[in-house]
Design a protein that fits this description.
single chain; alpha/beta; six-stranded parallel sheet; 16 strands; 35% helix
Length: 547
Amino acid sequence: HQGYARTVETLAGPIRLALGFNPSHLEVVYPAVLGWVRAQQQKRGDLDGGLVLPVAVHGDAAVSGQGVVMEALNMSATRGFSTGGTIHVVINNQIGFTTSDPRDTRSSLYCTDVVKMVEAPVLHVNGDDPEAVLRAVKIAFDYRMAFRRDVAIDLVCYRRLGHNEQDEPIVTQPAMYHVIRDHVPVRALYADRLAARGDIGAGDAEAMTAAFKVEMDRMPARHVRPYTPYIADWRPYRGAHWRAPADTAAPLEQLQELGRRISRDPADFVLHPRVIMVLGNRRQMAEGAMALDWGMAESLAYATLLTEGHGVRLTGQDSARGTFFHRHAVLHDQNRKRWDAGAYVPLQNLEPDQAKFLVVDSLLSEEAVLAFEYGYASSSPEELVIWEAQFGDFDNCAQVVIDQFIAAAEAKWGRLNGLTLFLPHGYEGQGPEHSSARIERFLQLAAEDNIQLVQPTAAAQIFHLLRRQVLRRYRKPLIVFTPKSLLRHPDAGSPLADLAGGGFRPVLGDPEADPDKVTRLVACSGRLYYDLASRRRERGLACFASN
């Protein structure tokens, strides 16, 4: 579970091997490893996956039974999540996780049939034949490097002991385990084979085994390696306090110029009338003629970070446009003749030497995509990595990632991570299925400063919050309960000056309150404040409360 990393010297030069830290929900680490690999490839400029290779080790029951495998396979060739193919090794012990019957673990003939959805070849090989296994691995590697596609090895073997060393699988699988008890172990079989061929002499097998055990005992518990531009260095973030300060304001002139660049119409584009209106409003916001709405403040946070050298990666369902029509990070030519042409990303066209910006409308997956982004963020402490749920309650399909990685990785494995989650939250007339991001569930997961939970109330708050997540030397997962109706609520807007000064404020005072007359304090957040303030004005009540 702890993971491991080591540089191995080979005839072709040094190769770094890394084992991902993983929970008992073993298959969920598969997309997390893909995200880590994607980040490593991007750092190296490895556009086709020729330098960094993901290897996923599965169990036979898990690969056919866990839906996250299918979700991750479905990502394998998409633009925002491809890694140039994965080598899958399925340890097929034929009884699954404990003592199950193959008739109850799947409906297909082979446990590896799930990879057929991406037309990946499968090599079925007998685990009792080490040379055949090696040949299968070489074929799989050559295939992956030639075609940059997934390939699987079905390693047909057996489990001599049960799910743990005390388990007795013979209780429920007597026929199989009577055979296994009488079966010669693979090492002895291969040693006899080598001796029969004259490749080794008497006693050589035992000597080789003893020498290997000595070498394993000498191996350090954790390989000490120098930090390079490709290896994430988390040392500067360890031990930081959650109140660590950060200067998140940006010069007014810079904000105005970046505002003009992200709101200009692309040349030779015919934009949708509603998008034309959005960009027109943003141009006025950039000049200070209108208060900034949420989408503009968020875009300016990205723009300033990008020009300061920090990459930004944002994925989720409808994230490019925004589920609630507020982001418009990708502009589309309404006269385009082909589905793959006519798109323009303003945040990719700020400056020639800006950092990389990627926004992706992900496949309809929560668990695998969130795990991928967690893995990506685990290798990219200097980037702003965001996963956005289409609606906040959709995070429940990714609860394993939230429980096992986001909330617990630091306590279990000592691993920091700066992943940000956007969870649209609030009852805005869409019914219970599209309303609650379950703030109470996240509060139950919060302990010992393991995660940050924030529900911003004004546009300037999201600007400073996103910049703070990258600029200060503090890395913990950030859960943002984002609004719906407040995205364009006039009272939730902020002047450009609020971005050029100040910072994120954990508590906002009620601007209408007279501190000398306050007798009761009401703590609230998000839309609730605006509803209360509006009702107060409607009823003509004196302000005796402070938010």
